[in-house]
Amino acid sequence: MSPLSNSFLRADQLNAAEIFFPLRTHVCHKCFLVQLQEYECPEAIFSDYLYFSSYSESWLQHAQEFAIWAKDQFNLGEQSLVVEIASNDGYLLQYFRAMGIPVLGIEPAANVATVAEEKGIPTIVRFFGAALAEEFTATGQKASMIVGNNVLAHVPSLNDFVAGMKLLLADDGIISMEFPHLLQLVEQNQFDTIYHEHFSYLSLHAVERIFSTHGLRIFDVSELTTHGGSLRILATHNYNSRYPARTSVGALRSREGHAGLLSLSAYASFSEKVRRVKRELLAFLIDAKNSEKSIAAYGAAAKGNTLLNFCGIGTDFIDFVADVSPHKQGMFLPGTHIPIVSPQKVFDTKPHYLLILPWNLRKEVIEQMSSIRNWGGKFIIPIPKLEIV
Fold first, then answer.
1. Whole-angstrom Cα distance, residue 314 to residue 225?
2. For residues 35 and 157, what is the distance between their CA atoms, to the nearest angstrom?
3. What's the rounded mean pLDDT across residues 148-168?
C-alpha cells in the first residue's frame, strides 16, 4: 500500500488522513504487457504536477543532444513541426526552437505548462488522445516528428494514445518514444520505478504489438542509460517505405525472448528479490542509527517514495531529503512525512550518510554533493543492490 508518489504534503496537511492505494503489477499472459490497475485517474495525478524536467542538468544535456541529432537525421527545418507529448516545462522543445524549427507542446499540468510558455514554447494544456489529435489535424496541420519522453508508461489508455499519434503524424513523419525498459526493471531489481503514475511497464515486444495494431511500424530501437535503462524507439506509418527496419529491432526482440520476458516464469522470482533489498537496506539503517550516525536523503523523487513507503522508512531514520527544486522545498514526502529542504542543509548539518533516492542520477548527485567527503560522509545507493560509496 502506497500513497501517490508525487502527492507531496504541505505542513498544514500532516495531521490529515492520506489515501494509500495497492501497488501491484499484473502481467498479461498473451501480450506480456505489465500494468498497474488504474486506482486513480490521470486528472488527479497530473493536472497539478511538481516534477520540472529542467532541474536535472544531465537530462537537459540528453534533450539537447537528441534535438541536434534529430534535426540532422531527419532534415528538420523551418517547414517542419515537432510536437512533444507531455512537454513539461519546455526542457526539450526549447532546443528545437533555438534551431528555428516550429514546435508545439502538449502538457496536461497547467502549472508546468506555464513555465514552458514563458520560454516561448506554445503549449496545449490537455491530455493527449485521439480526440485532441482529430481537433488539431482538422486545422490542416500534422507533425513531422512526434516526441514522447517518459510519457508512454504514464498513459492508462494506451490504445487511445497510440491512435492519436497515428492521426497526428504526417505521411513521412517520425515518432520517437523513450520509456524505461522492462528488461532492466526485472534484471536490475528496479522495483522503486513502480508507482501509480506509471500505469505500464514496457518491453519492445509489447510496444511493437500496440503500435502494429494502429498501423505504425517500429524501424529502430536504441538502448539508453537514462532512468536506469531506457529504450528509444523510432516508428513511422506502415506504408512509409523510406525507413526500412534496422537490425537493432530484431536483435533486441531476440534478447527479450532469451531473457524470458515472454514467459510468466521470468516474473515469478521478482517479489523475493524486492524483499531482499528491503531487508538489506533496513538492516544497514538500523545498524547506523544504533551507532548514532545521522542520515539524510537526496532527491525527492517519485521512485524514492515507493522505496521509502515499501520499506517503512520515515523520520525515525531519515532527518530530511534535500532537493534542488524550489517547487518541492518546504513540502513533505507522502506517507513518510520527511521534510524537503534545500541541498544547503546537507552542508550545514553534515550527516554521516546521504541516501540517493534517484539512483539513476547517482553520478550527477555524487559530483554535486562530493563535498560531504570532507567530513567523512558517504553515499548510500539502494538499487539494484545496497552500496556504500
1. 30
2. 11
3. 94
